[in-house]
Write a structure and sequence with these properties.
The chain is α+β, with helices and mostly antiparallel strands. It is built from two helices and two strands. It has helices at 16-32, 36-52; strands at residues 2-5, 10-13.
Amino acid sequence: MVLLENFASHAYLESREDTVRLSSAFDHLRASALSALESEARIVRIAEELTDT
């Protein structure tokens, strides 16, 4: 089962096809995400750029 939710609504998807498809999409997102340290470094860099202008 997959729960999709957003600000206005939510949906439960129970079919194997939906579960496999969304699990794959989540795996791709997780693989492309920055690590916690990389995220922190990027946030610091952007904050510095914004305060330098």
